[in-house]
Design goal:
This protein is of the alpha/beta class. Helices cover about 30% and strands about 20% of the residues. The longest helix has 14 residues, at about 85-100. The radius of gyration is 18 Å and the shape is globular. The two termini are about 15 Å apart.
Length: about 260
């Protein structure tokens, strides 16, 4: 059966290493849009970074950002659905993780922007006016995503320790090459939010084709009827995906879609 909806991660998947979307990929996505096949961007990026590629999402105009915490109506430039972390629970988890893993620092992402603890070392330029304060001050409203960073532990070691310390109270994953954990509200993953969106659109899981490359994509790839890991994906993603697509610098998503939809 031909898929009825395409769900794709961005970084390491649809977007090239230089941060661009190729003309070829753009043309494939536009053709799917003309055929009334929704293409949903499903990314760990916050809204401010996801907006850079929204021009390619087509007239259907929906994107899932912050690992499922927010569905953004691109066409109308407004929130479609929020699934945030409540401050009390978020701070409880922050205390437990820092007690178990000293040296952990935090950043808190909301619709209003990002706030960083003084010890949090960012890897990318932050927006003007970014707050710097202890996490107890930053977590003063529901958050789309909690970020936890460690400068000494390896990513998977930090993840394993965090899972034990937080006891499943929030969802923890990672998609970075550094020791940066991305923490979401209970039961919030790319898959669970994509499922809610597809239910509303009348699309079953078996009618979805999904693409990803990192551990935060695992729930989505497991849920979708057809899944592709990128050729340069993390080993855990390659192990569970149905198929392997060419790498993101080779327009792997677009090349697979061109074959599947006979473009």
């Amino acid at each position: 059966m031909t898929p009825r909806l395409v769900a794709t991660d961005l970084d390491g998947t649809l977007v090239r290493s230089d941060g661009t979307v190729s003309d070829y990929t753009r043309d494939v996505l536009l053709e799917l849009d003309r055929r009334d096949v929704p293409v949903v961007f499903v990314t760990g990026r916050p809204l401010r970074w996801a907006e850079e590629v929204f021009e390619h999402v087509g007239s259907h105009g929906l994107a899932i950002v912050s690992n499922g915490a927010l569905v953004w109506d691109v066409a109308r430039e407004r929130v479609d659905l929020e699934r945030p972390i409540e401050p009390a629970l978020g701070l409880e988890v922050c205390r437990a993780l820092r007690t178990a893993v000293p040296g952990t620092s935090y950043a808190v992402e909301s619709l209003q922007g990002i706030g960083l603890e003084p010890g949090y070392l960012e890897r990318y330029p932050m927006p003007d006016g970014t707050r710097r304060a202890p996490v107890e001050e930053l977590f003063d409203r529901p958050a789309l995503k909690l970020l936890a960073r460690h400068e000494e532990l390896a990513p998977e070691e930090f993840w394993d320790l965090a899972e034990v310390a937080t006891e499943g109270r929030l969802v923890i994953t990672w998609s970075s090459t550094t020791s940066l954990l991305e923490i979401s509200a209970p039961d919030v993953t790319k898959a669970s939010t994509l499922s809610l969106l597809c239910e509303r659109l009348g699309v079953a899981a078996e009618d979805v084709i999904a693409f990803g490359d990192m551990p935060n994509d695992l729930p989505m790839l497991t849920w979708a009827g057809t899944s592709y890991a990128m050729a340069d994906a993390h080993r855990s993603v390659t192990e569970i995906a149905d198929h392997v697509a060419p790498g993101h610098d080779e327009d792997g998503v677009a090349r697979v879609l061109a074959g599947v939809f006979d473009l």
